[in-house]
Every structure is written in C-alpha cells, then in structure tokens.
C-alpha cells in the first residue's frame, strides 16, 4: 500500500516526473525550557468489508509547557485547538487492513499540516508516527492489536514532540493512494548491528541497504558516533549523519513505550526518505527491521557539513 510503514516498515515514493515543492524552513525558537507534547485521544479503529476496510478516528491534543520567566521554579502551559483525524485504510484483496501499513494520510483539510503514518509489527502492535509538516515536527505512539481489535475507544496516550531537520514535500503527500501505489518502490535493510559503549559514549552501527529490490548489490552503511556529554547512548536521538562508506544519511529516534529505535534513511540526492522501526533495541545488538518499506518524497535540505 502507500507509505509502507513508517516506524516498522518504510515508504518510498519516486520523484520521477514530479515537480518538488520547496517550503521555507521556519527558524527554530525552541529552547530546553520549552516542552511540546501531543496526546492522541478518542482513538478507535473499526473494521468492515471482511476486514479489508479500517475506519480510524482520533483527536490530536497539543500542549506546550515553558518556564515562567517571572516566577522561578514554575511553568506556563498552553493548549492549542484539538485536531480531529478521520480516515479509511483500504487493504488489497485477501489482506487484513488491521495489519496493513499506511500513510502518509492527511488528518483533515482544515488542519492540512498533520499527517498520520503507521506500521504493524508481527509481535502484535502498531507504531504510529504523527507528523506536522508545517512545523517539521513528529511524535511516536504505539498500540497493541488487542486494544485496537476491540473497536472501542482506547485511553489517551501522550508523547513528546520532536523537531526534524528536513521538510516533507506536501504536494506529493497529497497524492491519491492509487498514484502512490503505481510509482512507489521499496527499500529493504539487512540486519542492523548497533553497538553502544556507555563508558566512551559511542554508538557504532552497520547495515546494508537494498534499493529497488536489488538483493545482489547492497549498499553498505557504517556509522561511528560520539554522543554529547551527559547523554545516554541507549536513548540518544541524533539527526542527519552520513554513512562513512556510502552517500546515504541516517537519523535515529527513540520510542520509550516500545523500547523501539526509529530510523530515517535519506537518499544521496536528498529528495526521498524512508522510515524503519526496530523494537526492543535494548535486548540485542543485532536488530531486525520489521519489514521493507516505501520511500516518501521530501525536501531534505542541503547536505550537512
């Protein structure tokens, strides 16, 4: 289907014959004293049409907490208007929509900046990534199959909002699913080895990239990274690091609720990206991606220095 998983599967959309739309990047005004959180509330998924059609409803509630400049030790909290999301996920004939990766799906026309992506893990849960392409921010959420299969409202779940260092091509995200299906191509990763050295504060990662289904000529990627002082390498999140032996770029996020690593892989041309998810990363140095995926178009910006 379309965005093949964001956190557990990945999505690729070819830019052939498409005109990229570049959007200006806002200047970041964030500081360590400002904390943004999104809460997914009223989440419910219902299945119809012999489990080929899934109807989703959820509400995004946004909150910002900042330090009070006039009264030390206290904070100010603001709440933005809630963003409703209602959409359908359609699985192909013979497939179950409840285990179908999907996205990016626009929440609604009034709040055009919010998109939802999800991927299913064979261990029985869905990882969902909510993106605000206007602000270049995203947050991760996870739901058990057993919760969603009930067809009733799930308790609210809150996650921190993280800034991302690239822009998504909104015009291509707005394409109909049928268009994405005809032009999409999969990327696949070989098993990933991630070694952390807490004493030295380093992370070493090696894996292979298979593009366009080519299993005979994989592209290597090796990373040797040094975490900032005082940052735990187990949960360290980092952005836009170039593979030492190829021209791909890698970012890494962490979702505590599933002990999951979320990798963003950016193409050498920096016009497409893919998401991959690795659950339970603290249990093994050998991480198996939850599936191959689809690449999403983006204006991923200039190459970092």
Detail the topology: elements first, then pairings.
Elements: E1 10-11, E2 34-48, E3 53-67, E4 75-79, E5 83-90, E6 102-106, E7 114-121, E8 125-132, E9 137-144, H1 145-149, E10 157-160, E11 162-163, E12 167-168, H2 170-173, H3 177-183, E13 186-189, E14 192-197, E15 202-211, E16 219-226, E17 238-242, E18 249-255, E19 260-266, E20 272-278, E21 286-287, E22 293-294, E23 296-299
Parallel strand pairs: 1-22
Antiparallel strand pairs: 2-3, 2-10, 3-4, 3-5, 6-7, 7-8, 8-9, 9-11, 12-23, 13-15, 13-22, 14-15, 14-21, 15-16, 17-18, 18-19, 19-20, 20-23
Q: What does this protein look like?
A:
By secondary structure, this protein is mostly beta strands. Helices cover 5% and strands 47% of the residues. The chain is built from 3 helices and 23 strands. The protein has helices at residues 145-149, 170-173, 177-183, and strands at 10-11, 34-48, 53-67, 75-79, 83-90, 102-106, 114-121, 125-132, 137-144, 157-160, 162-163, 167-168, 186-189, 192-197, 202-211, 219-226, 238-242, 249-255, 260-266, 272-278, 286-287, 293-294, 296-299. The strands form 4 sheets. Strands 1, 13, 14, 15, 16, 21 and 22 form a 7-stranded mixed sheet that branches. Strands 12-23-20-19-18-17 form a 6-stranded antiparallel sheet. The model is unreliable at 1-30 and 169-184 (pLDDT under 50).
């Amino acid at each position: 289907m379309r965005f093949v998983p964001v956190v557990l599967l990945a999505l690729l959309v070819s830019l052939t014959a498409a005109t990229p739309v570049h959007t200006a990047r806002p200047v970041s005004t964030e500081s360590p004293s400002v904390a943004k959180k999104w809460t997914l509330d009223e989440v419910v998924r219902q299945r119809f049409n012999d489990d080929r059609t899934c109807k989703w409803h959820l509400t995004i509630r946004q909150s910002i907490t900042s330090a009070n400049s006039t009264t030390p030790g206290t904070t100010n909290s603001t709440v933005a208007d809630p963003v409703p999301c209602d959409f359908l996920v359609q699985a192909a004939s013979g497939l179950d929509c409840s285990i179908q990766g999907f996205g990016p799906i626009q929440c609604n026309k009034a709040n055009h900046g919010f998109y939802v992506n999800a991927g299913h893990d064979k261990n029985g849960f869905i990882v969902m990534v909510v993106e605000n392409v206007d602000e270049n921010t995203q947050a991760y959420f996870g739901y058990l199959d057993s919760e969603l299969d009930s067809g009733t409202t799930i308790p609210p779940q809150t996650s921190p909002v993280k800034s991302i260092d690239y822009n998504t091509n909104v015009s291509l995200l707005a394409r109909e699913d049928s268009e994405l299906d005809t032009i999409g191509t999969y990327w696949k990763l070989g098993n990933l080895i991630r070694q952390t050295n807490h004493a030295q504060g380093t992370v070493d990662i090696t894996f292979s990239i298979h593009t366009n289904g080519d299993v005979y000529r994989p592209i290597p990627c090796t990373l040797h990274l040094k975490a900032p002082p005082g940052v735990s390498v187990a949960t360290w999140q980092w952005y836009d690091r170039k593979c030492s032996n190829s021209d791909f770029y890698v970012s890494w996020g962490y979702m505590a609720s599933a002990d999951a690593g979320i990798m963003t892989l950016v193409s050498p041309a920096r016009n497409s990206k893919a998401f991959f998810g690795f659950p339970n990363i603290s249990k093994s140095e050998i991480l198996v991606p939850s599936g191959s995926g689809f690449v999403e178009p983006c204006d991923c910006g200039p190459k970092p220095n």
